Amino acid sequence: MRSSRPGRIAKPRVQAIRVHQEVPRRIRLSPCFSFRIGDRIGEDLVVIGHLSAGKISELYQVWSDSAICALTCKIVRAGFSAESLEMRGFRQESHLLRRMKHPRVVRLFGEGVHEQRPYLIQEYLQGPSLFELIDGAPGRRLPLVEAVKSMIHVCAAVDHLHSLGFVHRDIKPANMILHGGAPVLIDFEVAYKLRTGHKPRRAMGTDPYMSPEQCLKQELSFASDVYGLGAVLYEMVTGRWPFEDELVNRTERRFPQVGVRRPPSPGEFADIPGNLSKTIMRCLSRDPAERFASARELAQQLEQHLAGSDRMWPESLDVMSSRRKAV
Fold this sequence. Notes:
The chain has helices spanning 85-99, 130-136, 144-162, 212-215, 222-238, 244-249, 274-283, 295-303, and strands at residues 9-10, 40-41, 45-53, 57-64, 69-76, 108-114, 117-123, 166-167, 176-179, 182-185, 192-193. It is an alpha+beta fold.
């Protein structure tokens, strides 16, 4: 759904937009929708709410006459050719969601075409998004246990995607919607199929969460998503992006993460255990080989930062023993 230009707005908040000329997050932009409340999409869907709108697609809360419930309709904006990169990404998201069956991944219920505009019918997630949760927290910081548990849930969703041989490429708080108290991963339009020796043609993603190899259009790996997961966890516990000063003030290059300097330690901005800080900084290593190799490995490490009733699985259970082979 995203391109290297300004893209989708999740609610009217700037951090949710994929932009490569990052805008200060306090600025608010007004989304533009092509359907009004009460309009029909296809024969079954009636628009009952506006969720988000971007350059490529729009999200609506809709009422399904047949299902007798509220759902989400994601529809492509008018004007894209069938073979455009944007349309190929939309078809890929449909293909992936049909294959993905995981409680922390948004569910697909159907698809269709309305006035030559393809659309997906997904479950309606009331939210808020993780971005909204962070933005409304004191100092934009979540409690440590809540942050770690949320990231483990997201790691599980990303691991499921990795098992299909894809990387997400746009791990960020706006693409994580809370449902039943835990985040659900959405937006798979820029997911990328890993192939040995192949490099992406575009630097896709959202600046603060993109791995250095994404920024440089180098060969990707599962560790590329691990960088994004680490950047989100960094923000959850500090209220800041890893390279916030450079990104907001544009004091240096567009992508400060490709330089030799590491981001400040999370401990400089928040009172967090040293071991957790080391875990986050390992995710943000410039060299992919120095990061956790997979989202599953990161989840196992994060679980060790929980104790007693906060633990998410028995201490004796080795989640790595049931690791699935990517296809």
